[in-house]
Amino acid sequence: MLDYVALAILVIVALVLFYGIIAIHDIPYEIAKHRNHPQQDAIHVAGWISLFTLHVLWPFLWIWATLYREDRGWGFGAHKAELDEGRLAALEREVAELKAALHASRTPEAVSAPPPELPTPTDSKQEH
User: Fold this and answer.
1) What is the number of helices (H) and of strands (E) in the chain?
2) Residue 69 pairs with which residues in a beta bridge?
């Protein structure tokens, strides 16, 4: 009787370990899917390959999956929002300067003055 109980326990432990290892190998893929990682399919395939290499690749897959975040990309350099705010401020300054220059050029003297003469292509040929 104890032989059958021991055999049942051994089979249950083997099944739990087998399915546990398969579930563990999928953790980096689940992280990548949650973060909308652009290479989540590659991480999933590498996780299955890691099963056959005794999970040697698994720590690297975990790192690869956690490096990317949708709100800040790969996380290198400044945040995108900070860059966008800086660009927006620079563009607003440039627009204000252009408006001021346009307003200054629309004085009554500038409006009534004739436009400057531009050389025509035939004039430049005759000078040579």
Assistant:
1) 7, 0
2) 73
Residue pLDDT, tens place only, 24-33: 989 999 999 9
Q: How would DSSP label each residue in the chain?
A: -HHHHHHHHHHHHHHHHHHHHHHHHTHHHHHHHHTT-TTHHHHHHHHHHHHHTTTSSHHHHHHHHHH-BTTTBT--SS-HHHHHHHHHHHHHHHHHHHHHHHHHHTSHHHHHSPPPPPPPHHHHHHH-
d(CA 90, CA 98): 12
> 63, 68, 67, 52: which is closest to 27 by C-alpha?
63
Count of domains observed in the chain: 2
- Residue 126 pLDDT: 53
Q: Tell me if 104 is assigned to some domain.
A: yes
- Helix/strand/coil for 71: coil
Reported pTM:
0.54
Are 19 and 68 in a shared domain? yes
